[in-house]
UniProtKB/TrEMBL annotation, chain A:
<dbReference type="GO" id="GO:0001401">
    <property type="term" value="C:SAM complex"/>
</dbReference>
<keyword id="KW-1000">Mitochondrion outer membrane</keyword>
<protein>
    <recommendedName>
        <fullName>Metaxin-2</fullName>
    </recommendedName>
</protein>
<feature type="domain" description="Metaxin glutathione S-transferase">
    <location>
        <begin position="146"/>
        <end position="208"/>
    </location>
</feature>
<keyword id="KW-0653">Protein transport</keyword>
<keyword id="KW-0496">Mitochondrion</keyword>
<dbReference type="InterPro" id="IPR036282">
    <property type="entry name" value="Glutathione-S-Trfase_C_sf"/>
</dbReference>
<dbReference type="Pfam" id="PF17171">
    <property type="entry name" value="GST_C_6"/>
</dbReference>
<keyword id="KW-0813">Transport</keyword>
From TrEMBL, chain B:
<feature type="domain" description="Mitochondrial outer membrane transport complex Sam37/metaxin N-terminal">
    <location>
        <begin position="2"/>
        <end position="91"/>
    </location>
</feature>
<dbReference type="GO" id="GO:0001401">
    <property type="term" value="C:SAM complex"/>
</dbReference>
<dbReference type="GO" id="GO:0015031">
    <property type="term" value="P:protein transport"/>
</dbReference>
<keyword id="KW-0813">Transport</keyword>
<keyword id="KW-1000">Mitochondrion outer membrane</keyword>
<keyword id="KW-0472">Membrane</keyword>
<dbReference type="InterPro" id="IPR050931">
    <property type="entry name" value="Mito_Protein_Transport_Metaxin"/>
</dbReference>
<comment type="similarity">
    <text>Belongs to the metaxin family.</text>
</comment>
<feature type="domain" description="Metaxin glutathione S-transferase">
    <location>
        <begin position="122"/>
        <end position="185"/>
    </location>
</feature>
Length: 235, 261
């Protein structure tokens, strides 16, 4: 969803397609990826560079210090929000059983669906252990998310976008994560409640949704966005 | 598990918890920051952990020459037998594991590719920090804050430890404002007495940083002795010595003031 928002903000036409073997089609094994002409580029960072090389960039108007700040905030979102999302999906037993396993394995027949989702779970848990998140409880993870949202909320303040009037890669990234958290149904609403506590963040999401996703065919893009959000969550 | 803070009967580990504890005791370096600056602090710390930490871990623990000639003997000398035979190896393996799990994976298929990528990221991170610091003394003006401490914690080992393989250090030395930043903090807050023990902040100092500062102190003692020898020779006027003493004397009062709530 971050990528879709980014491309919409650059005014580039994009078509979202859902595929079961998406992870295998991607050159790096990671989602999302784009297919342009005969080139395939994956992951948000490289795609942004690729788009920049083609002459479209959202952060040209920023000075050096602002660019540094933008990169720092993007790392914060990746570090905290993304890791928290992965933790919730793969390390919280209730969520894993009821939502993640069925959803991740849904395109495949039994027993492949169970095997693949256990494999992914093991991989993610190993990574959590290496960075020290395995020992965290759900409350601690939610507290971290809260801290991150507080930081984003304070940085956004009353401005329409993070760097005032123009949206940048950071806005696309934050929108992607927050919208997904707000709209995906999980076993509890605690995660989305944390985000809802910050009025300016929910207003920010609504504003971007209205501006960049309702200009096009409303039903198609909203549901496609939600479906692609689920796919991006399964990264 | 280091670092560890022991205050009376309470034992706390992990930097985040230690910082929380200190804040509850009313020691807060971020008291004067605005909400936005507080948010910036979190963001920059995330940047350091994502982009700079893998290369730092690699330089200390994975790069074979560095590990064998500096890190392993250094740590082994401080850990009692028989743990000193096992722990450094374990820390090295954990560092490599962490690097590979978080930064490895396709399209980077070999360790050399991962290494190249993490060093590229680290150099970019150093450039970003340098741009953000600009010409100010600290990241948020004239008084140091938590962010300054974090950045210093990452930069000082790169800056000061003498490794055989030093690509990160060389890059850092090309950014004079970051070097000046490290030097300022070292002179203000890590000025050690002759016995080698820091008069303030002993409890909160990272164990590794204590060892580092003792090493740095030995180096600076050597440099002072060299300076003294040079000054005794007729070419150098005695004026230089007195101005140096005045500068250090003037700074004596301020670190204590800055640390109070």
């Amino acid at each position: 969803l971050c990528l879709q928002a980014f491309l919409q903000m650059c005014n580039l036409p994009v078509r979202v397609v859902c595929r079961a073997n998406a992870e295998y089609m991607s050159p790096s094994g990671k989602l999302p990826f784009i297919h342009v002409g005969n080139q395939v580029v994956s992951e948000l960072g490289p795609i942004v560079q690729f788009v920049k090389a083609k002459g479209h960039s959202l952060s040209d108007g920023l000075d050096e210090v602002q660019k540094a700040e933008m990169k720092a905030y993007m790392e914060l979102v990746n570090n905290m929000l993304l890791t928290a999302e992965l933790y919730l999906q793969w390390c919280d037993d209730v969520t894993v059983e009821e939502i993640t396993h069925p959803r991740y394995g849904s395109p495949y027949p039994w027993p492949l669906n169970r095997i693949l989702s256990y494999q992914k779970q093991w991989e993610i848990r190993r990574k959590m252990k290496a960075i020290g998140w395995a020992g965290k409880s759900l409350e601690q993870v939610l507290e971290d998310v809260d801290q991150c949202c507080q930081a984003l909320s304070q940085r956004l303040g009353t401005q329409p976008y993070f760097f005032n009037k123009q949206p940048t890669e950071l806005d696309a990234l934050v929108f992607g994560h927050l919208f997904t958290i707000l709209t995906t149904q999980l076993t509890t609403d605690e995660l989305s409640e944390k985000v809802k506590n910050y009025g300016n963040l929910t207003a920010f999401c609504r504003r971007i949704e209205q501006q960049y996703f309702e200009g096009h065919d409303k039903d198609n893009s909203a549901t496609a966005a939600a479906r692609s959000a689920k796919r991006s969550l399964l990264r | 598990d280091v670092p560890v803070l022991i205050s009376e009967d309470i034992v706390i580990s992990q930097p985040a918890k230690i910082l929380n504890f200190l804040r509850k005791q009313k020691y807060n370096a971020d008291y004067e920051l605005s909400a936005k600056q507080g948010a910036d602090t979190l963001a920059y710390i995330a940047l350091l952990e994502e982009k700079l930490l893998p290369a730092l871990l690699h330089t200390f623990w994975v790069e074979a020459e560095n590990y064998c000639s500096v890190t392993k003997p250094w740590f082994a000398s401080r850990i009692p037998f028989p743990l000193n035979l096992y722990l450094p190896g374990k820390m090295s393996r954990e560092a490599l594991n962490r690097i590979l799990l978080t930064r490895g994976g396709p399209p980077l298929y070999s360790l050399t590719e991962v290494e190249a990528q993490i060093y590229r990221d680290a150099k970019e991170c150093l450039n970003l920090l340098s741009k953000r610091l600009g010409t100010s003394q600290f990241f948020f003006g004239n008084t140091p804050t938590t962010l300054d401490a974090f950045v210093f914690g990452f930069l000082a080992p790169i800056y000061k430890v003498c490794f055989p393989r030093v690509q990160l250090q060389e890059h850092l030395k090309q950014l004079p404002n970051l070097c000046r930043f490290c030097d300022d903090i070292l002179t203000c807050y890590f000025r050690l007495t002759v016995s080698g023990h820091s008069p303030s902040g002993q409890d909160t100092a990272d164990v590794n940083l204590q060892k580092l500062t003792q090493l740095v102190n030995k180096e600076s003692n050597l440099i002072e002795k060299m300076d003294d020898n040079l000054r005794k020779s007729p070419q150098h006027p005695p004026r230089k010595l007195t101005t140096l003493k005045l500068a250090t004397g003037g700074e004596e009062g301020s670190p204590l003031n800055r640390l109070s709530p």
